[in-house]
Amino acid sequence: MSRTRFALVFFLSLSTAWPCAVQAQRSLAFDAHALPEAGAVAIAVAEDLPEGGSFAAIDARSGGALRRAAQAEGFRGKADSTLDLKGFGGYERLLVVGVGKQSLAPRELEDVGGRVAQAFAKSRATRVELVWDGDEADAAAHLALGASLGQYTFDKYRSKKTGDEAGDDAATGKGELVIRTRAGKAAGDAYVAQWKPVADAVALARDLATEPGNALWPEEFVARVRAAASGLPLRIEVLDVAAMRKLGMGGILAVGQGSVRPPRLLLLRYDGGRAGDAPLAFVGKGITFDSGGISIKPNTNMWQMKGDMTGAATVVSTAIALAGRKAPVNVVAVAALAENMPSGSASRPGDVVRTASGKTFEIMSTDAEGRMVLTDALWYVQREDRPKLVVDVATLTGAIVAALGGDYAGLFSRDDRLAGQLLAAGEASGEELWRMPLRDEYGKRLKSPIADLRNGGGTPGAGVGAYFIGEWVDRALPWAHLDIAGSDWKDSASPTVPEGASGFGVRLLDRFVRDHHE
Ligand code: BES
Ligand code: MN
Ligand code: ZN
Fold first, then answer.
1. Which residue in 61, 122, 156, 297 is the catalytic one?
2. Does residue 33 have a pLDDT over 90?
3. Is 475 an annotated catalytic residue?
4. 371 is a catalytic site residue
5. pLDDT at 169
6. Gap from CA of 227 to ligand 1 centroid (Å)
7. Residue 153 included in any domain
8. Which atom of ligand 1 lies closest to the CA of 399?
9. Burial class for 80, CB neighbours closer than 10 Å (0-12, 13-18, 19+)
């Protein structure tokens, strides 16, 4: 018995030795602005195909053939349009990306980079050159960020690195993507220092979200984060079950007790700001699989609950990004990790739970487990770190999916200033938020006849869930709750987010820190 156990544990631990998902299919390189006369090339052009840039230069070189091709295809350079020419002039392929305006915001530049990377994902060209007629290093870096985000794939479980679709074979989408701008190689410095850490962190968040429940459980999540954080100036603290018992963390323990895989509370601290400055606290829901527990979920789409840890993935990945780019800020990221399973040791509906703060709640549904694990995480970080604000990130409710789909995450806050900063960061990063109401009377819907609160009840489901979480945050502390159920997973690809795990929140929180807390 103990032998087979050992063998099983050994086998499972091998999973950490698997190669990481291929995060950047083409490596990114930067070079001086020049217009190649052959090969696989992408250029951008504004609406009405103005004179003066690469488009006009190739047109002149081709004796007007490029404008004729554009005319024939009805291509006018409008945003989101493309002219894709194979074997045009000396080019193996010339991709003309319409960008509409002359001057683009960072998130629009990222979309251009992502569109180019995705357009060449199934190409066998080992070298793709993106010629951009601008001279700003930061703009070039955003093109690269978008390319990196857009070409993300997760193929570690395919025995041959071969896709299902025709023409998608091992030789495609490899080699390099060279970004040629008038900023030249300075663009590479900007990218590596400021934006590559963000691109890599988003890929980490996507990897963690995509990993199935048999490959990622609380302890394994901790191991993966330790590996990703190695070499970075991050302090890691992990509370195991014994430590959580000592602190009376009944909330997270109640969720974890039904699983053979014990819960963990993981904290990542990054002190890039002034010594003694109160940190920003980012707290994430990390349910590595949410079966619903005894209040078991229906079968349809239950598999998606392998991704019920994206809040935790987002906050730890953000801390890793901030450390990687040496942001001048103090941050603590907290991941409340548990697996929610039904078993003989699982919590029951009706159970009363005492959390570390001393506050008690009655379980109405064991499927409202996200708010249960967050109680103790919020209490602990407030006691240990005295943060100046708290943002929690959680795939909390199906109700937010019904309200907002995947286009926005729900933002709940009583603090207009913090809400405004987060909304602005969402707008700037492209990871958008929609503010939802958080009314005092939601508290009445959470009254229990025998405990301080109950963990669910009444509508609106997303707002009532937010209210419950807020009961574990000091009312004097600026606090916001982001419900990312829906926005954390995309059913169709966009330029910077391939279908699947989006890594939602990393770019948003990084932008929030850059614009408001550096
Ligand atoms: N993880 C789910 C929420 C969820 C649903 C995320 C769909 C992504 C897609 C959460 O733990 C949950 O089950 N919430 C319940 C709360 C209810 C029992 C109060 C819900 O939304 O039904
Ligand atoms: Mn649930
Ligand atoms: Zn859940």
1. 297
2. yes
3. no
4. yes
5. 59
6. 30
7. yes
8. 21
9. exposed
pLDDT surpasses 60 at 2: no
CA of 291 to the centre of ligand 2 (A): 7
pLDDT digits (tens, 9 = 90+) for 374-387: 999 999 999 999 99
Does 359 appear as a known binding residue? no
Contact indicator for 504, 407 with CB cutoff of 8 Å: no
Which ligand number lies closest to the CA of residue 395?
Answer: 1
- Do 355 and 471 have their domain in common? yes
**CATH for 502:** 3.40.630.10
How much is the pTM?
0.94
Q: What is the pLDDT of residues 183-196, one digit of tens each?
A: 988 899 999 999 99
Residue-level pLDDT at 1: 34
CB distance 307 to 370 below 8 Å:
no
Q: Which domain holds residue 71?
A: 10-195
CATH code at position 39: 3.40.220.10
Structural domain count of the chain: 2
290 is in an annotated binding site: yes
Residues 288, 305: contact at Cβ < 8 Å? no
pLDDT 10s digits, 286-327 = 999 999 999 999 999 999 999 999 999 999 999 999 999 999
pLDDT for position 162: 47
**Does residue 491 have a known ligand-binding role?**
no
Cβ-count burial 191-227 (b if 16+ within 10 Å, e if not): bbebbbbbbbbbbbbbbbbbbebebbbbbbbbebbee
Whether residue 3 lies inside any domain: the answer is no
- To test the pocket of ligand 1, the residue of 397, 455, 481, 484 to mutate (highest count of ligand atoms within 8 Å of its CB) is 397
Residue where a domain stops, chosen among 195, 226, 244 = 195
